[in-house]
Amino acid sequence: MAYDDFTSGKRAMDACHLMVARLGGDAELRTSMWKFDVLRSTQLNQTAVEDAVEADVIIVANARNSGLSDSVKTWIDGWAPRKRGQAAALVALLDFTDDEVQAAARTQSILKAAAAEAQMEFLPQEIRLPLGSLSPASITASVDLPRRRPVPPVIGTPRFEGWGIND
């Protein structure tokens, strides 16, 4: 998981727990969480690339309309070509809640292109609400997971296990 801030990191963890719950008891959960800021370090960026190459699911969560920094793009460029031929998915948790959504749209485009290059399934999850209407209940109702069957919302009870020192 790569995330921008606390809120997007929480959404990433909630999405991860949701996937594990949907897969049942046979799923093994091993998580690595990388805050976007940490990816500025060349050594940590390379370690995060290796984690992504090994992952079955990569979750990228951006903050409200934030774009992707050069270090995050370097991370993506490091793992995308190496994922080809692996069964994997890229989950993009994108926040389109501000009036200016161009940065979030560019982020979605970059992630979609990376998934295509890696020959991965691309699963965008978008939050689209006006800024004034944000509340936990309205966010929960607005998340639309692209699934064939109904899925509980991504935003739920906070879970803090496994967060590490990056926060």
How would you portray this structure in words?
The protein has 167 residues and is α/β, with parallel strands linked by helices. It has a single domain (2-142), classed as Flavodoxin domain (Rossmann fold). Helix content is 39%, strand content 14%. It has five helices and five strands; from the N terminus they run E-H-E-H-E-H-E-H-E-H. Strands 2-1-3-4-5 form a five-stranded parallel beta sheet, with helices on both faces. Strand 4 (89-95), helix 4 and strand 5 (121-127) form a beta-alpha-beta unit. Helix 2 (42-54) packs across helix 3 (70-79) and helix 3 packs parallel to helix 4. The chain is globular and about 40 Å long. The two termini are 13 Å apart. Mean pLDDT is 78; it is low at 131-160.
